From TrEMBL:
GO terms for molecular function: ADP transmembrane transporter activity; AMP transmembrane transporter activity; ATP transmembrane transporter activity; coenzyme A transmembrane transporter activity; FAD transmembrane transporter activity; FMN transmembrane transporter activity; NAD transmembrane transporter activity. The chain crosses the membrane at residues 31-54, 84-106, 134-154, 197-216, 236-255. This is Mitochondrial carrier domain-containing protein. It is a multi-pass membrane protein. InterPro entries: MCP_dom_sf, MCP_transmembrane, Mito/Peroxisomal_Carrier. One of its GO terms (cellular component) is peroxisomal membrane. Belongs to the mitochondrial carrier (TC 2.A.29) family. Residues 15-28 have a biased composition (Low complexity). Residues 1-28 are annotated as: Disordered. Solcar repeats lie at residues 28-113, 128-224, 235-317.
Length: 330
């Protein structure tokens, strides 16, 4: 037997051994990945949320309200205090936890399916190809968008905090107290109808390309690095940052349009995605599609970097905890 053939069979054996031995074990592993992704997303979101506030307000305001990121932060703190930078944090933490749990669960399920297909086809390695990574990301992203869009509509409304009562407040007077997450949700459903919770779902589905690009770049770079050595959380941090930088820079105009559609009230313009694009370009120029891109890219890159670093650590912790529970149950 040739060395090449022997190595191929050895790799195949390693792949089979690393695959969970039963559907129940695979299901448990998918849940472990989902929990790790949810926990990593929650921690990274909490660390970077003020940047989300700054970028979201820049996305939904007109060009007349645009200012530098530093001036915007000073204005928010002066008017609302430090808590103003964390408007909508509770809904965002809930949203990112649910979003990441759903995404990672379906992504791992899809990836497992492709890996098993690769093994059955006799491929030497079960590592996903670029096309397979993109298809797995598309399936996971689409499921996530449909299930979690209402959460992000509520969060964007709370983060924007842009109302007539706030603009007309007298000097020295305190702005009216803003509703809670549940209050905002009930208000949208009552005043605008339940379908308003799915505003911006079309550009959100288009934005599925964002995690596809992000995770494809991450997976392929990770595969390249694994050929040389073991991937550490530090490596995952940098690879995650690079993937997100590329993905967010390419898809940012759709993020702006989605945010505008989220905050459009019942009396606002009823526009589809393409009409929103045309109106923003007409009224604000091409620069209007990139409002708040500085803090958004910074936040996205830092969040993704921490997410991938946290996820690997949390996944290992989840697997170890699962093993301890299994041993005690025996």
């Amino acid at each position: 037997m040739s060395d090449a053939s022997h190595k191929a069979q050895q790799k195949l054996a390693e792949s089979i051994q690393s695959t969970p031995s039963s559907p129940a074990a695979q299901q448990s592993d998918n849940v472990a990945h989902a929990l790790a992704g949810a926990g990593g997303g929650l921690l990274s979101m909490a660390l970077t949320y003020p940047l989300i506030t700054l970028s979201t307000r820049a996305q939904v305001e007109s060009k007349r309200a645009h200012s530098s990121t530093l001036n915007a932060a000073k204005r928010i703190i002066q008017r609302e205090g430090i808590p103003g930078l964390y408007a909508g944090l509770d809904s965002a933490l809930f949203g990112i936890s649910v979003t990441n749990f759903v995404y990672y669960y379906w992504y791992e399920w899809s990836r497992t399916w492709f890996e098993e297909a690769a093994l059955k086809a006799g491929r030497a390695s079960k590592k996903l190809t670029t096309v397979e990574s993109m298809l797995a990301g598309a399936l996971a992203g689409s499921a996530t968008v449909i299930l979690t869009n209402p959460i992000w509509v509520v969060n964007t409304r709370m983060t924007a905090r842009k109302s007539e009562s706030e603009e007309q407040v007298l000097p020295g007077a305190k702005p009216a107290k803003k509703p809670s997450t549940i209050g905002t949700l009930i208000s949208i459903v009552k005043d605008e109808g339940p379908w308003r919770l799915f505003a911006g779902v079309v550009p959100a589905l288009v934005l599925v390309i964002n995690p596809i690009l992000q995770y494809t770049v991450f997976e392929q770079l990770k595969n390249m690095l694994e050929k040389k050595r073991r991937v550490t959380p530090k490596d995952a941090f940098y690879l995650g940052a690079l993937g997100k930088l590329l993905a967010t820079s390419i898809t940012y105009p759709y993020i702006t349009v989605k945010s505008r559609m989220h905050v459009a009230g019942k009396d606002g313009p009823k526009e589809d995605m393409f009409a929103s694009f045309r109106r923003i370009i007409k009224e604000e120029g091409w620069a209007g599609l990139y409002g708040g891109i500085g803090p958004k890219v910074t936040q996205s890159v830092i969040t993704a970097a921490f997410l991938f670093a946290f996820k690997d650590v949390l996944y290992d912790m989840t697997v170890q905890a699962r093993k301890k529970v299994a041993l005690k149950a025996r």
